From TrEMBL:
InterPro entries: Amino_oxidase, FAD/NAD-bd_sf, Zeta_carotene_desat/Oxidored. This is FAD-dependent oxidoreductase. Residues 9-433 form the Amine oxidase domain. One of its GO terms (molecular function) is oxidoreductase activity. Transmembrane segments: none annotated. It comes from the Archaea. NCBIfam families: PRK07233.1 (NF005560).
Length: 435
């Protein structure tokens, strides 16, 4: 038997790839539902992800998978509008005209920022169009040092620093320039008249997850099945799985681990040096909108890192007319105050934060608020990150017949994504099939 440990998008993709090659893998998922970070809440209409999701135009593998599974007709490409909240004002930053009108950067700042986002190095006065192609050349370059050299002090202070603080908190200066350049490439092209088109499934990403489960076979996906141990010598021998209070040993020929690397270390002793940050993410169901933008980055002091108003991207009609807003923050340590707060305390603090930013907001319009927490939702893309990724084939590190496709995989760089999860699952399955 081939065992796939983890029923998130990477595990389901690995199982799908193996099944397409004629194998009959079994997926073991510890929680009661599959999907991982793409798990959903119920609403008055379509389900909504507990953690915000959308696709960028560069994420081609997930689109191809949707086509294979026959759900590509459910994938919509919509205009996602971004804004920046600075000094109490929401500044739209979608079109060339809005960017030109942004008052917190000089003309020179905007020119240098624009050239960077287009991938053009203008240092020295002679444009270079390939300076940023080799991301690994910037793996050990501090992001602040890079930005000050390749843009301006103003671009760093009034554009990137607040974004980095919201994304990486106290670890922001540990991040490499390679992450930023890769992130710029990842986002794809922007229409200078309309902004950026983003992908979202009619019915949520549960549409894709459900189609994957059907393709793999529901009978081959075990939920509430927590892996306790992997027994191996020169090669993997068995898997001990606890389900319903009973531990069972399953003889296996191969195992694909798609969990976070700390579990791989627990089961096999393999140490991964990548550090991860957690997140707290709330979905707020409301009668009225808060803003008219989809993604609101925040430069001012706020108790959350960003506001993502989902129903300014996807029609509220899909949710029974209700307005849905994400409030989200990353944490770098579980010792941080935010992580220690109760859900009620977070609710009060975050709704108060929205009131401070938008005095017209009435918390009586809030119908419900669900709060999700995960201690490991994203890597910290620090300098030297690529030296720490976990190989897909662990034969040379642990034993034969053990493969890895979790978030510490190469495919989850320069930014973790559902597309990267699928690519990681495919890569680990392909490594197994090559043996």
């Amino acid at each position: 038997m081939i065992a796939v440990v983890g029923g998130g998008i990477a595990g389901l993709a690995a199982a799908y790839r193996l099944q397409q090659a004629g194998h009959d893998p079994t997926v073991f998922e510890a929680s009661d539902t599959v999907g991982g970070l793409a798990a959903t809440y119920e609403t008055e209409g379509d389900p909504i992800e507990a953690y915000y999701h959308h696709l960028s135009a560069t994420e081609e593998t997930i689109v191809e998978l949707a086509e294979e599974l026959g759900v590509d007709d459910r994938l919509d490409w919509l205009w996602g509008h971004d804004s920046y909240y600075v000094d109490g004002v929401v500044h739209p930053l979608n079109t060339a005209w809005e960017i030109a009108a942004y008052p917190h950067l000089s003309f020179h700042d905007k020119f240098r920022l624009g050239m960077l986002t287009l991938g053009v190095d203008v240092r020295g006065g002679i444009p270079s169009f390939d300076s940023y192609d080799d991301l690994e050349a910037y793996e050990h370059v501090p992001i602040k040092e890079f930005l000050l050299e390749h843009t301006t002090q103003g671009v760093y202070d009034f554009f990137f620093e607040p974004l980095l603080r919201a994304k990486f908190g106290s670890r922001k200066e540990d991040v490499s320039a390679a992450w930023l350049l890769g992130r710029i490439q990842f986002r794809g092209e922007r229409d200078l008249l309309k902004g950026e088109k983003l992908g979202y499934f009619d019915g949520s990403f549960a549409v894709l997850v459900d189609a994957l489960v059907e393709a793999v076979g529901r009978e081959n996906v075990e939920t509430g099945a927590r892996v306790q141990d992997i027994d191996f010598g020169e090669s993997v021998q068995s898997l001990t799985v606890e389900q319903g209070g009973t531990a069972t040993e399953h003889a296996v020929d191969d195992v694909v681990v798609t969990t976070m690397p700390h579990l791989l270390e627990r089961w096999t002793g393999y140490e991964c040096d990548i550090e991860f940050q957690g997140s707290v993410c709330a979905v707020v169901g409301m009668d009225e909108p808060v803003t008219d933008t989809y993604w609101l980055n925040i430069a001012d002091e706020a108790p959350f890192g960003a506001l993502i108003e989902h129903t300014n991207f996807v029609s509220p009609e899909r949710y029974g007319g209700e307005r849905l807003l994400y409030c989200a923050s990353y944490i770098q340590s579980q010792d941080e105050e935010l992580w220690q707060l109760s859900d009620d305390e977070i609710r009060d603090r975050w709704l108060g934060g929205i009131e401070d930013m938008f005095p017209e907001f009435d918390r009586d319009s809030v119908n419900w608020m669900e709060i999700a927490r995960n201690p490991r939702t994203a890597p910290i893309y620090e300098r030297g990150y690529l030296d720490m990724v976990v190989p897909y084939d662990l034969a040379g590190d642990i034993a034969d017949s053990i493969y890895y496709a979790g978030m510490a995989s190469r495919a989850q760089y320069p930014e973790r994504s559902l597309n990267g999860g699928i690519e990681a699952g495919y890569a680990a399955a392909d490594a197994l099939l090559e043996e």
